[in-house]
Specification:
This protein folds into 2 domains: about 150 residues, 3-Layer(aba) Sandwich (Trna Endonuclease, Chain: A, domain 1); about 55 residues, Arc Repressor Mutant, subunit A. The protein contains 7 helices and 9 strands, in the order αβββαββααββαααββ.
Length: about 230
C-alpha cells in the first residue's frame, strides 16, 4: 500500500493520473504514444488505453475519431474513500480529515451521461477503478466559492482496492439488481440499489441512450423501464 502523503507521478500531470498509469502498466505496453494525431496514455496491442479522472465531455471529439478505427479502454477512478488535506499557500499541511462521501460504481454514470452514444460503440470498453485518494486543498484564494476559494492543487492515489470492467451492454445491465419487476420505475430501482433516485435517473438515462434500457410507458408520472429486446 502506498503511504498517505506520498507524491506519485510527474510534475506535468496530476498525481492521480500518473499513478493510475503506473498501476495499469504491463510489460510490452507503449506509454505516451501519438495515434491519429492524439496523445494516448497507453497503447497495448490493438487497444488504446485512456485514463480520465473526470470530465468525460472533454473526450467527445477525441473518442469519436479514435473509435472509428481503434479499440479504446477508458479508465476512470472512483474514490471509495477520500481524505481532504488542507495546506497553506506555500504547501505546508494544516489538517487532514476523512471525507464522509464514499464513491460507488453508479458514480460512473455521472460521467457517461456526457458520452452515452459513444459508450455504446462496439470498440468502446470502460473500466472503473476503486481507490483510496487524498485531495490536496490549498489556501491560495483561487478556488471555487463552494470551497471558500480553496483550490484543489492535486489528487493523489493511496491505494487501489479493485476494478470493474464493462465490455458490453450486458455488463452495464448487470448492475441492475435481480428481483425487480419488469417494467420498473426509478424509485423501485433506487430502493433495490440503496441509492438516491437522482443517481438511478442518471443511470437509466445513460442506459436508454446506449440502447440497453427502454421506456415502455408510465405509472402515474413515473417512467416505466425495461431491458431492451436484443
Amino acid at each position: 500500500m502506498m503511504q498517505p502523503g506520498t507524491h506519485i507521478g510527474t510534475l506535468t500531470e496530476q498525481s492521480l493520473h500518473a499513478a493510475l498509469k503506473q498501476w495499469l502498466a504491463k510489460p510490452g505496453d507503449a506509454p505516451e504514444q501519438r495515434v491519429d494525431g492524439y496523445q494516448i496514455d497507453i497503447v497495448r496491442g490493438d487497444t488504446l488505453i485512456e485514463i480520465q479522472t473526470a470530465n468525460f465531455s472533454a473526450l467527445k471529439t477525441k473518442l469519436g475519431k479514435l473509435l472509428q478505427n481503434h479499440k479504446v479502454l477508458l479508465v476512470h477512478p472512483i474514490a471509495e474513500s477520500k481524505w481532504i488535506v488542507r495546506q497553506t499557500k506555500r504547501g505546508r499541511q494544516i489538517t487532514r480529515r476523512k471525507s464522509p462521501k464514499r464513491g460507488r460504481i453508479e458514480d460512473l454514470f455521472g460521467e457517461l451521461l456526457y458520452i452515452p452514444q459513444l459508450a455504446a460503440h462496439p470498440n468502446f470498453n470502460c473500466m472503473a477503478v476503486f481507490t483510496h485518494q487524498e485531495e490536496i486543498w490549498r489556501d491560495d484564494r483561487r478556488g471555487s466559492w463552494t470551497r471558500k476559494h480553496w483550490s484543489i492543487a492535486d489528487r493523489q492515489l493511496l491505494k487501489v482496492t479493485g476494478s470493474q470492467r464493462f465490455d458490453s451492454l450486458g455488463d452495464y445491465l448487470g448492475l441492475i439488481p435481480p428481483g425487480l419487476p419488469t417494467p420498473f420505475t426509478h424509485k423501485q430501482l433506487a430502493s433495490a440499489m440503496g441509492a438516491p433516485v437522482w443517481m438511478t435517473t442518471r443511470m437509466s438515462y445513460c442506459l436508454r441512450k446506449m440502447g440497453a434500457l427502454e421506456s415502455v410507458g408510465k405509472q402515474g408520472k413515473s417512467l416505466l423501464l425495461a431491458p431492451c429486446s436484443q
